[in-house]
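Exercise 4. Each item below gives a protein and its sequence. For each, produce the structure-token representation.

Item: DoxX family protein (Mucilaginibacter aquariorum).
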Amino acid sequence: MENPKKNNRLYLTLLILLAVFFFISGYLEITKNPVTYQKTLQMGYPPYFILALGISKLMGVMALLQPRFKRLKEWAFAGFTFDLIFAFISGLAIASYSDCIKSGFVFGVLLLTYVLFQKKT
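Answer:
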């Protein structure tokens, strides 16, 4: 038998973890952190794209954390899904397997969070 209270706590915990991950990622891209910025340039992305990606991640975090608009939250889940898929592919392109593992792990967390979100609503 499912425990809705336990599912809700797990959902909120995973949601906060995702928000922290994408906030840090977006912040590092906006501030042109040398480690992340150089790696993203190495992947072939132009500088203006990195800035737009960072801003989009911060907007997605705000959408994930707001409690009212379900459709907006679903768009954030979709955007982060695309981000993680492309991060995985980009990691493969430059043979950065640690990036592939990281994006794969976060993708799994994202999927579980989305499933719990759907059960919650």
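Check: Residues 4-120 form one domain.
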